[in-house]
Design a protein that fits this description.
The chain is mainly α. Helices cover 56% and strands 3% of the residues. The chain contains 21 helices and four strands. The strands form two sheets. It has a two-stranded antiparallel ribbon with strand order 1-2. Helix 3 packs antiparallel against helix 4, helix 5 packs parallel to helix 18 and helix 18 runs antiparallel to helix 20. The longest helix is centred in the middle third of the chain and has 24 residues. The chain is globular and about 65 Å long.
Length: 431
C-alpha cells in the first residue's frame, strides 16, 4: 500500500525503513526487497526442493520455486482485483504490488529438504534446542542467514510483517513442551527465541494495543497455542498459497494420474451449478469435455485450472477486524466468500487424500525423515563435516552448535541432502 499521502495514508514512514541505511536507488524500497529476495541463494535453492511430488519424478511438475512464483502471480492478481473493486480501500491507499510479490516469493524460503517431513525430522532433532519450524526459518533466513552474516537481507519492516504468518515465538507456542505431540511435530510459529530482537524491531512502530491485537492467541486442541491474526498482505499471500495448492498442485496430480479427471469434474459439478460465478461455469463446461486421451488434454486441463483461479482471484473480499484506529495492516484481512472457501477446501482435500497420503509420496517422506535425522546426528558428532563458515561460527558460539547444524541442513536441497547422506553412509545404509 502507498504511504505517501501523509499521516492519513495507509503506511507510516517507518514501514519502509530498514535496520541499516542504504545507498540511493531508483527503485522504491519494496522493489529493492524484491530484488534482494530473487538474487538470494535461498531463493535459488527452491528449484530443487519438492512442492508435493519429489524432484525426481520428472521435469515439468511444480517445485518449491515454481510454486512460489505462481503464488506471487496469484497474489498479484488478488491485489489488482481488490485495488479495483474494494470500497474499503480509501483514495490513495492501495495494496502495493511490489510488496505483495516480493513477500510471496519469500514465503517458503525456510522449507527444509523433503518438505513437511523434513520439517518434523528437524524439529525432533532440535528437541530441547529451540525446535524447528519452516515459517520461523523463513524469518531467520531473511533477517540473519542470507546477505551479510548476522544481518540478513536488510529488508523493510513491511516485507517482514508480510511473511509473518504466525506472529508468535516457537517457544511460546509450545504451551506444553512435555506433551508427546510437541516433540513430534512443531506448532505453527514465525519466530525463534534467537531472533526475538528482529521480531521486536518489526513491531516497534506499532502501539501496544495494536501489537496485543496482532499477536493474540487461542489454545488449539493440542499442546500448542494458535495465533489469530495476520497482516493484510500476509492474509492475501496465505490465500494465494491456498489457491495455488488447490489448483496447480491438483493439476500436477491429474497429469500424473494420481487424481483422475473424473474426480475433478465431480467436485466442480457439485459446486459450480449452485454458485453465481461465470468463471466456475466455464471451468465446469471445459471439464465436461476433457478426456485423458485427447491430444490437447494438458492444454484443456490448464484452461480448467485457469478458470478456477480466476474465480478465486476475482471474488476475494476485504473485511475489517479490530479497532478502526488500528493500522490498516491489522485492520483489514483478505478472505474468500464462504462458498468459494468450501470449494477451495474440497480441492485441497483431494490433493491431500489422493497425493500427499499416497504410498509413493509417503515413501519419499519416510526417506526424507531418515536422511535428515542421520545427517543431523553425523554433523553433531563431527563438526569437520560442516562448511568452513559454519565451523568459524561454531568457534565463536559453541553453545549454538545444534542451531548451526540445523541451519545448514535446512538450507540443503533434496538432491544435495541425498548425496551427502550417501557420501557419509555409503551402500551399507541405502535409502
Amino acid at each position: 500500500m502507498l504511504f505517501n499521502k501523509g499521516e492519513n495514508g495507509f503506511y507510516r514512514k517507518e514501514d519502509r525503513e530498514r535496520r541499516i541505511a542504504h545507498r540511493p536507488d531508483l527503485r522504491d524500497p519494496f522493489e529493492r526487497d524484491h530484488g534482494r529476495i530473487v538474487h538470494s541463494a535461498a531463493f535459488r535453492r527452491l528449484q530443487s526442493k519438492k512442492q508435493v511430488l519429489g524432484t525426481d519424478r520428472g521435469d515439468f511438475h511444480r517445485t518449491r520455486l515454481t510454486h512460489s512464483m505462481e503464488v506471487a502471480q496469484i497474489a498479484r492478481g488478488i491485489a489488482l482485483s481488490l485495488n479495483l473493486r474494494s470500497p474499503l480501500l480509501p483514495e490513495g491507499g492501495k495494496i502495493d504490488i511490489s510488496l505483495v510479490e516480493a513477500a510471496a516469493l519469500a514465503h517458503d524460503l525456510g522449507h527444509p529438504p523433503f518438505g513437511h517431513e523434513g520439517e518434523r525430522a528437524l524439529h525432533r532433532c532440535m528437541s530441547g534446542e529451540g525446535g524447528f519450524e519452516g515459517n520461523a526459518q523463513t524469518f531467520r533466513i531473511l533477517t540473519r542467514l542470507e546477505g551479510k552474516k548476522g544481518e540478513g537481507l536488510n529488508l523493510t519492516r513491511a516485507l517482514l510483517l508480510s511473511v509473518m504468518k504466525y506472529p508468535i515465538l516457537l517457544e511460546k507456542a509450545l504451551r506444553d513442551p512435555g506433551h508427546p505431540q510437541a516433540a513430534d511435530s512443531p506448532p505453527k510459529a514465525s519466530i525463534y527465541s534467537d531472533d526475538l530482537e528482529a521480531f521486536q524491531w518489526v513491531l516497534d512502530p506499532f502501539t501496544v494495543e495494536e501489537i496485543r491485537f496482532f499477536t493474540e492467541t487461542e489454545p488449539e486442541a493440542s499442546p500448542f497455542l494458535r495465533t489469530c491474526r495476520k497482516s493484510l498482505e500476509c492474509s492475501l499471500i496465505d490465500l494465494a498459497d491456498d489457491i495455488a495448492y488447490a489448483t496447480h498442485d491438483l493439476e500436477d496430480a491429474v497429469n500424473f494420474r494420481l487424481v483422475e479427471v473424473e474426480e475433478l469434474r465431480g467436485i466442480l459439478e457439485g459446486a459450480a451449478p449452485t454458485l453465481p460465478y461465470e468463471e466456475l461455469q466455464q471451468a465446469l463446461a471445459l471439464a465436461r469435455n476433457l478426456h485423458p486421451r485427447q491430444e490437447d488434454f494438458k492444454y484443456g486441463l490448464k484452461q480448467v485450472v485457469a478458470n478456477l483461479i480466476s474465480a478465486f482471484v476475482n471474488h476475494t473480499d476485504l473485511v475489517k477486524q479490530g479497532d478502526p484506529a488500528y493500522s490498516p495492516r491489522f485492520l483489514y484481512r483478505v478472505v474468500l466468500p464462504e462458498e468459494l472457501e468450501q470449494l477451495n477446501r474440497a480441492l485441497k482435500e483431494t490433493v491431500r487424500n489422493r497425493v500427499i497420503d499416497s504410498p509413493d509420496v509417503q515413501a519419499l517422506a519416510f526417506k526424507g525423515d531418515r536422511v535428515v535425522r542421520l545427517l543431523f546426528d553425523a554433523m553433531m558428532d563431527e563438526e569437520k563435516l560442516l562448511p568452513e563458515n559454519d565451523r568459524k561460527s561454531l568457534e565463536h558460539a559453541p553453545e549454538q552448535r545444534a542451531r548451526i547444524v540445523c541451519d545448514y541442513i535446512a538450507g540443503m536441497t533434496d538432491p544435495f541432502a541425498e548425496r551427502m547422506y550417501r557420501r557419509l553412509y555409503g551402500s551399507g545404509r541405502e535409502l
